[in-house]
Design a protein that fits this description.
- The complex is a heterodimer of chains A (308) and B (355).
- Chain A is built from 11 helices and 4 strands.
- With 308 residues, chain A is mainly alpha-helical.
- Chain A has a single domain, classed as ABC transporter involved in vitamin B12 uptake, BtuC, CATH 1.10.3470.
- Chain A has a two-stranded antiparallel ribbon with strand order 1-4.
- In chain A, strand 2 and strand 3 form a beta hairpin.
- Chain A is globular.
- The termini of chain A are far apart.
- In chain B, the strands form 2 sheets. In chain B, strands 2-1-3 form a 3-stranded antiparallel β-sheet, with helices on one face.
- In chain B, a hairpin with a 2-residue loop joins strand 1 and strand 2.
- Classes of the chains: A mainly alpha (308), B mainly alpha (355).
- At the A-B interface, helix 4, helix 9 and helix 11 of A face helix 6, helix 11, helix 13 and helix 14 of B.
Chain lengths: 308, 355
């Protein structure tokens, strides 16, 4: 086990973990505020990836490949990412308004089943619209590589890690410094009290869904840049893993989602490198079980004392 | 039928549920025997899966509805039952020639193993509560799936052979490969029958009703309603929750064996997260803690995608929309009061016409 390979695995793990972390943020924010498990989140990722795929093809076709080299490289990717973020944000808000808002007072299991229904709906709608035959996604930043000392790092990995860091910083700023962010924290702490303080709870929840879905769009683009096969079920497994990442770090906690996502990615890459590719999922979930037994509220989760 | 009214409510419910299942069985079975073409090719192929799903949904309702814990990994127990039960059935092919007896032995074997896993998983899991328990059961289901996908099990005259990850089994002449890793199981004979499925459903109902209406069942429900209050009157919450969980796992295992032995071939990916969710949907739509509702929901929702086959590509979309609409209709206060007003108006309208 030489140092270079180890570093290489570590960087790949960080990159995969960054994607999990971005997805996990969506889960954790929604859980923190609406106290629901949004199982449709993974499928929003898939929708985002499809939108980006088609936009990139359209916009890319508008450029003559020989002229305008820089614009031809940047414009399709930029348009793809932006449009998929817009579409996913709208989708997230619409889903919340139509399916989850009417169930605000309902038992959590009913909301869970509705979320599952939405997830089925998105998967099957995608299958009708875009067929189940896989699309091959070309990475948004091309397939170039950077030489950092003895290490070779691909552009995709670099962009993924940078995107994750930027998103985390922006989100931390947003929740701590802005009015909306403070409203979100207030709602997640105590819905009733927040309402009494004049916070519009419904709008805050819609806002959370909007942010979570926009992040899902970015995650979808990054995920498909790293693993280029795109099918209507692309989002479900990363969705489940990101969800466990959110639980791993302590659900409801934003730094927890980052930590959980990164750890999960690193464990998965190392498990498939040193134990077995087929068993990497089993190892990831095994570690999750052990962590939950030792720290039942996740790594950074708050243990809530039960009051009698 | 005067005695029906004087019965205790719980006894009446269980009695009516048994009656419903028996009547449904008699109708379907007589159609199959006496009518040309039976119940139609589509339904015929679904009969045993329906029985298996009813059983596992009842088992899950014991955990989710009665004991109040969300399990997202019940397909894992079904998987253990299916693989181990079918392996047992193939291994016993020559020594036990009577098919129903072989099926019964395999089912018991599958149930015992699944129950054992339920116990092992239950020790750590039942100390957690709420959503965390759901995650651990989800994780368990995924672990079971990826482990079984890599198991190679064979039997020959020297005994059992087992290998993991890669197939290193050297089977002697006449040996049978019982589990073939990602290829799953190939059944040489499909020994599950509709009658066996019916019997399993009846046994499950008897077990579930007797557990729910017993001292243990009341303790389980007390622990569900208020854990702290239950503990303070001396109920060992972990013990009773474990009782419900293990019973549920064992029943799911038996259902898995029934399902597995009805298929020519199946793989571990059949019993994935989506299957767990599907079973949970049966339970929630049927009603938490409501056994007859679960039976109807499991049967109806297994047939629904098949019945919607003429819509071809749209069927799963329709299924998803139906699912969302049903959840909205049963849980939204506005829609509910609207519906009840509509029903009242209809009733009043009918009364008006009669006058």
């Amino acid at each position: 086990m030489d140092f270079l390979t180890l570093m290489d695995y570590l960087i790949r793990g960080l990159s995969l973990g960054s994607i999990y972390a971005i997805i996990a943020l969506g889960y954790t924010m929604v859980y923190g505020i609406a106290k629901m498990l949004n199982f449709a989140h993974g499928d929003v990722i898939m929708v985002g990836a499809y939108i980006c795929f088609f936009t990139m093809n359209r916009v890319g076709a508008m450029f003559d490949p020989e002229t305008q080299a820089l614009a031809a490289a940047v414009a399709p990717a930029l348009a793809g990412v932006l449009l998929s973020m817009v579409v996913c944000t709208v989708l997230g808000v619409v889903i919340e308004g139509l399916a989850y808002k009417p169930l605000r007072q309902a038992p959590s299991l009913a909301v869970l089943i509705t979320a599952i229904g939405v997830s089925y709906f998105l998967q099957n709608a995608a299958q009708l619209l875009w067929t189940s035959s896989p699309k091959y996604f070309s990475p948004i930043v091309g397939s170039g590589q950077v030489q950092a000392g003895p290490l070779t790092i691909s552009h995709v990995i670099l962009v993924t890690i940078v995107a994750c860091v930027v998103i985390m910083l922006a989100l931390t700023f947003f929740t701590n410094k802005t009015k909306m962010g403070k409203a979100m924290r207030a709602v997640s702490e105590d819905k009733g009290a927040a309402q009494l303080m004049g916070i519009n709870v419904n709008r805050t929840i819609s806002m959370t869904f909007a942010i979570g879905s926009a992040l899902a769009a970015i995650a979808g683009v990054l995920l498909c840049s790293a693993y280029p096969t795109l099918t209507p079920t692309t989002g479900s497994m990363p969705g489940i893993k990101a969800f466990t990442a959110a639980v791993f770090g302590g659900i409801g906690s934003i730094p927890g989602a980052l930590l959980g996502g990164l750890l999960l990615g690193i464990i998965e890459i190392f498990a498939s490198a040193y134990i077995s590719t087929q068993l990497s999922t089993a190892v990831v979930f095994g570690v999750l079980i052990v962590i939950l037994l030792v720290k039942p509220a996740g790594l950074l989760g708050k243990t809530v004392r039960e009051k009698v | 039928m005067t005695s029906l009214k004087t019965m205790k409510k719980s006894t009446r419910t269980s009695f009516l549920t048994y009656a419903m299942v028996v009547v449904a069985f008699v109708i379907v079975q007589s159609l199959r025997v006496f009518k040309d073409g039976g119940v139609g090719a589509v339904l015929e192929g679904q009969l045993i899966p329906i029985c298996a799903y009813i059983t596992v949904a009842l088992a899950l309702n014991l955990v989710v509805g009665v004991s109040g814990e969300l399990s997202l990994g019940h397909a894992g127990f079904m998987s253990i039952g299916a693989f181990m039960g079918c392996a047992m059935a193939s291994a016993l092919q020559d020594s036990v020639t009577l098919a129903p007896l072989r099926l019964a032995i395999s089912m018991i074997f599958g149930a015992v193993l699944a129950g054992l896993f339920g116990f092992l998983i239950g020790i750590p899991v039942l100390r957690l509560n709420g959503d965390y328990l759901a995650i651990v059961t989800l994780a368990f289901g995924e672990i079971i799936k990826s482990i079984i996908t890599n198991v190679y099990l064979g039997v020959d005259k020297d005994g059992l052979q087992f290998s993991f990850l890669t197939d290193r089994n050297q089977l002697a002449e006449g040996g049978i490969a019982l589990i073939k890793g990602p290829m799953g199981v190939n059944n040489s004979a499909r020994i599950s029958t509709f009658v066996a499925g019916f019997i399993l459903v009846m046994i499950t109902l008897i077990v579930v009703f007797n557990l729910v209406n017993s001292r243990a069942g009341r303790a389980i429900m007390a622990a569900r309603d208020n854990r702290i209050a239950a503990e303070s009157v001396g109920i060992s919450v972990t013990k009773y929750k474990m009782m419900a969980f293990v019973t549920s796992a064992a029943l799911a295992g038996a259902a898995g064996t029934l399902y597995g032995c009805s298929q020519v071939t199946f793989t571990a990916t059949k019993f994935d997260f989506n299957t767990s969710i599907l079973i949970l949907v049966f339970v929630v739509l049927g009603g938490l803690g409501n056994m007859w509702g679960t039976v109807i929901a499991a049967a109806a929702l297994t047939i629904l995608p098949e019945a919607l086959r003429e819509f071809a590509d749209y069927r799963m979309l329709v299924y998803a929309i139906v699912l969302i609409l049903v959840m909205l209709a049963t849980n939204n206060p506005t829609i509910q009061s609207g519906l009840s007003r509509l029903i009242q108006r209809l009733k009043a309208g009918k009364g008006g016409e009669e006058q």
